[in-house]
């Protein structure tokens, strides 16, 4: 017989009348003693968020339901976003709200019911971001060859930051590490990670390490949030994702430029081994010595060849003096030859100038002018005689046909008052005054009558 049976048998042995408050108080104590901590799985519904910060909701399955209360201090530790319809697993004690006699659970933890829903959300987001090209290899940037300043985005108190500092201190203590603190678990982790990424991306680091230690899928879920994935993709600085252990895979691993299986591995990727660098330096030093030895030997041989070709400066000066004398003689000969050519051309031009001197031309022109001056009066006189004869001949011809010659033979010309010559009697009228122009003088006449009579040469 267990303890629960003893409690129920004791309640029925004595006839005791209880008040409602007493009944509810005993029932509450009984439930809390029997169910001090129990896990219950069900679908969340009727979620209420009063201003006090407490959460009240109902857990149900296909056949029953139970009221639940999640007080503020415990609600702050829940890492998931509670909403109606979500399948969850809740832990708490069974109790009774004495004021109403309501049977309920007082919870201290709530988590997703298995990783099936989270895994489904993980695969859906992965497929969508991959379709957008956020996982494409051409977006990935190579690791910096010699980083000097690295930003670490992680929890300042976790094991990941200690592992990273330890690796860098051992392998490359000269590299500057700057920790950008953020929560890496819980509901507030994703927004804080996004802010830390944006802050570190603006700080001008050579690379960024996004790190967290191992954990369950729920613990690592902030690194599967879409906002974190897009913040990693938007970084201009190279990002190494080092979330969880080697078997853990997150969305940030696919979006980042490089995935490291652990935070320590990420530190090793960015921190060159000092011993390996020293060995490489020694090899380079030996190679440099060998190259310098070969180069010096080659230059020595070249110097010897130049030394053999080098002649004494006195010999070189003597050759230059001889060359100078030769050039001086050539210059003198060339100058003398050029001078003779110029003198010959000057004599030729002087002869041409003498031949075409203006004094000789002026003498010829003066002779020509004297001849023309002598010919001019005779030519003018001849021209005047010819013109005078032509004028007299023209005057005689004109006189023969002139009306004045006719008038001189006794004829006259009748003119009307307008000075128009009268050619017919029909152009006059009785009483009209006419003017008769004679060979010598003029007469004014008046027409007395018209006589129609035709003159002939016989009249």
TrEMBL record:
CDD domains named among the record's database cross-references: ExoVII_LU_OBF (cd04489)
Keyword Cytoplasm belongs to the record: yes
TM ranges: none
One function term, GO molecular function aspect: exodeoxyribonuclease VII activity
Coiled-coil region: 336-382
Subcellular location: Cytoplasm
Catalytic activity: Exonucleolytic cleavage in either 5'- to 3'- or 3'- to 5'-direction to yield nucleoside 5'-phosphates
UniProt domain Exonuclease VII large subunit C-terminal: residue ranges: 134-445
Domain OB-fold nucleic acid binding, first and last residues per copy: 18-110
EC primary class: hydrolase
Superkingdom as given in the UniProt entry: Bacteria
The EC number(s) this enzyme carries: 3.1.11.6
Keywords annotated in UniProt: Coiled coil, Cytoplasm, Exonuclease, Hydrolase, Nuclease
Family as reported in the entry's similarity comment: Belongs to the XseA family.
Xref: NCBIfam families: xseA
Biological role stated in the UniProt entry: Bidirectionally degrades single-stranded DNA into large acid-insoluble oligonucleotides, which are then degraded further into small acid-soluble oligonucleotides.
PANTHER family for the chain: EXODEOXYRIBONUCLEASE 7 LARGE SUBUNIT
Subunit note: Heterooligomer composed of large and small subunits.
Name of this protein: Exodeoxyribonuclease 7 large subunit
């Amino acid at each position: 017989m267990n303890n629960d049976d003893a409690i129920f048998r004791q309640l029925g042995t004595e006839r005791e009348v209880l008040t409602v408050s007493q009944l509810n108080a005993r029932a509450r104590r009984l439930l809390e003693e029997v169910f001090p901590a129990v896990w219950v799985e069900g679908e969340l519904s009727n979620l209420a968020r009063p201003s006090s910060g407490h959460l009240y909701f109902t857990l149900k399955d296909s056949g029953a339901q139970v009221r639940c209360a999640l007080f503020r201090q415990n609600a702050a530790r829940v890492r998931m976003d509670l909403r109606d319809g979500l399948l969850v697993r809740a832990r708490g004690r069974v109790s009774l709200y004495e004021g109403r006699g309501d049977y309920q659970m007082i919870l201290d933890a709530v988590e997703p019911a298995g990783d099936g829903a989270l895994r489904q959300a993980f695969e859906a987001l992965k497929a969508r971001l991959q379709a957008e090209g956020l996982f494409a290899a051409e977006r990935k940037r190579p690791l910096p060859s010699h980083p000097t300043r690295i930003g670490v985005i992680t929890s300042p108190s976790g094991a990941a930051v200690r592992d990273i500092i330890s690796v860098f201190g051992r392998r490359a203590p000269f590299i500057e590490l700057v920790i950008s603190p953020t929560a890496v678990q819980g509901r507030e982790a994703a927004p804080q990670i996004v802010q830390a990424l944006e802050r570190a991306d603006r700080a001008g680091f050579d690379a960024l390490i996004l790190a967290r230690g191992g954990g369950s899928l729920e613990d690592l879920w902030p690194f599967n949030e879409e906002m974190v994935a897009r913040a990693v993709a938007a970084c201009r600085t190279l990002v190494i994702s080092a979330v969880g252990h080697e078997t853990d895979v997150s969305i940030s691993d696919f979006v980042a430029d490089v995935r490291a299986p652990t935070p320590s591995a990420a530190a090793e990727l960015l921190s060159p081994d000092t011993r390996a660098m020293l060995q490489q330096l020694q090899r380079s030093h030996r190679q440099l010595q060998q190259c310098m030895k070969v180069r010096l030997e080659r230059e020595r041989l070249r110097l010897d060849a130049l030394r053999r070709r080098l002649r004494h400066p006195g010999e070189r000066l003597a050759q230059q003096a001889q060359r100078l004398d030769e050039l001086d003689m050539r210059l003198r000969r060339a100058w003398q030859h050029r001078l003779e050519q110029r003198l010959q051309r000057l004599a030729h031009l002087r002869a041409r100038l003498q031949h075409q001197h203006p004094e000789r031309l002026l003498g010829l022109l003066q002779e020509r002018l004297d001849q023309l001056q002598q010919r001019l009066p005779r030519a003018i006189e001849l021209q005047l005689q010819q013109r005078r004869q032509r004028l007299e001949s023209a005057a005689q011809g004109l006189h023969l046909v002139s009306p004045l010659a006719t008038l001189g033979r006794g004829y006259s010309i009748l003119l009307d008052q307008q000075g128009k010559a009268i050619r017919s009697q029909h152009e006059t009228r009785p009483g009209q005054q006419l003017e008769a122009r004679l060979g010598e003088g003029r007469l004014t006449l008046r027409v007395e009558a018209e006589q129609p009579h035709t003159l002939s040469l016989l009249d």
